[in-house]
TrEMBL record, chains A, B:
It comes from Lactobacillus kalixensis DSM 16043. InterPro entries: Thi_PPkinase (IPR006282), Thiamin_PyroPKinase_B1-bd (IPR007373), TPK (IPR053149), TPK_catalytic (IPR007371), TPK_catalytic_sf (IPR036759). The keyword rRNA processing does not apply. Residues 149-214 form the Thiamin pyrophosphokinase thiamin-binding domain. GO terms for molecular function: ATP binding; kinase activity; thiamine binding; thiamine diphosphokinase activity. Its EC number is 2.7.6.2. Gene3D superfamilies: Thiamin pyrophosphokinase, catalytic domain. Keywords: ATP-binding, Kinase, Nucleotide-binding, Transferase. The keyword Phosphoprotein does not apply. This is Thiamine diphosphokinase. PANTHER family: THIAMINE PYROPHOSPHOKINASE. GO terms for biological process: thiamine diphosphate biosynthetic process; thiamine metabolic process.
């Protein structure tokens, strides 16, 4: 089973086709998840989540009541807690529902500490084991995660640029067959190798590293004003 | 001397009063810096930067010509380089101009690899030594940086929330006198303690840690639609 989740990040970061994507997922029988305010935002889009997770403290009483009367599986988190709502969601999706992949919308923008929670949580060993099955998407970026090893990474349609972000200590990072290459980089702290591009004659680049954790951020240029008008 | 810089991030992330802030800085004799596209955006706002840094590859020829004929100090970076434009700017501001503080706008939003460069560069020892003098600002967030030690951190006006982001391995992190506290946390990889708040009766909280590097992200809720209309 595939899974798709909406977190509570600002709508301005959504892709234009988000409603279609979630409706399609629902039709295909994928697992649809709302996290905290994301549950309500899904209902606003006319999509009933199969699973809602959060402390729901950002919702008004009548918004929560609506979710409680319509959503089959609701998991309440504790606002003072060891697991964030996003982490609890990842665990539920993979350990509970045994999903084979997860696409997350609404993880970016707005309060930067919230975004960094959604990025750094993949370093937590309990979450990291699922990281390669997860994709984060917003209007301008698509983020994937990689564990140590050799990876042939295929271009994502419409995303000409990519940055390789080492999110922790890393050993022997190599980036090859891309516009800019990197050889045997090791470092003790996070660092980003930004603004790389696929070569004109290739739709793939290669990445390998011996230890550490990598996030590849695919991106495109957009005209935000035009986007807002769409 | 104080310094203020504009990077090339999307305008949608600017605070409403950005033009006033830069005009005021110019009037006060502060050092005004444009980084890459930020140089041109400053000119558009009617503000001539004192210093422009970048490879300027995102500018049209006539845009660059305008900057070249008007800006006193221009420093060209190499697109294939060890130092990013932002890092070169930090070094120029503190080692070159000997500024006592730096406020940066335009560092967030848009391509996430670009934002992470602007965040993670402060882990580079050559940049880290200036980190406590730097503030990043966008419409919803204000970011400051802290080196090991004991810190009494004062509330930033209009920012009720804060998150404490440990950006690297850390030892003995304590957060006290805030709504949520943390005791003796140590970890090998980045982690964020998000959604904390100042106590109702206090405009300060305390932070201390023995080794590592901390970013405190102050934030507020905004109605983005209202913001766009202002």
């Amino acid at each position: 089973m595939k899974a798709i989740a909406l977190l509570g990040g600002p709508k301005e970061e959504w892709t234009n086709e988000i409603q279609t994507v979630f409706k399609e997922a629902k039709k295909n029988g994928d697992l649809v998840i709302g996290v905290d305010r994301g549950s309500y935002l899904l209902e606003e889009l006319g999509i009933m989540p199969d699973l809602a997770i959060g402390d729901f403290d950002s919702l008004k009483k009548e918004e929560l009541t609506k979710i409680e009367s319509n959503v089959k599986d609701i998991r309440y988190s504790n606002p003072v807690k060891d697991w964030t709502d996003s982490e609890l969601m990842i665990k539920s999706v993979f350990a509970g529902y045994n999903a084979k992949s997860l696409t997350i919308y609404g993880a970016t923008g707005g309060r930067i500490d919230h975004f960094l929670v959604n990025l750094f949580m993949f370093l937590n060993p309990e979450i990291k084991k699922y990281a390669e099955k997860v994709t984060l998407i917003d209007q301008q970026n698509l983020i994937r995660f990689f564990l140590p090893g050799h990876h042939v990474i295929t271009k994502e349609k419409d995303y000409p640029y990519f940055g390789v972000a080492s999110l922790a200590a890393i050993q022997n990072l190599n980036i090859s067959k891309a516009k800019y290459f990197l050889e045997n980089y090791s470092g003790d702290y996070p660092r980003v190798f930004a603004s790389n591009e696929f070569r004109q004659d290739r739709d793939e680049f290669e990445l390998d590293f011996d230890s550490g954790f990598i996030s590849v951020i695919f991106s495109k240029d957009i005209d935000k004003f035009e986007h807002a008008m769409n």
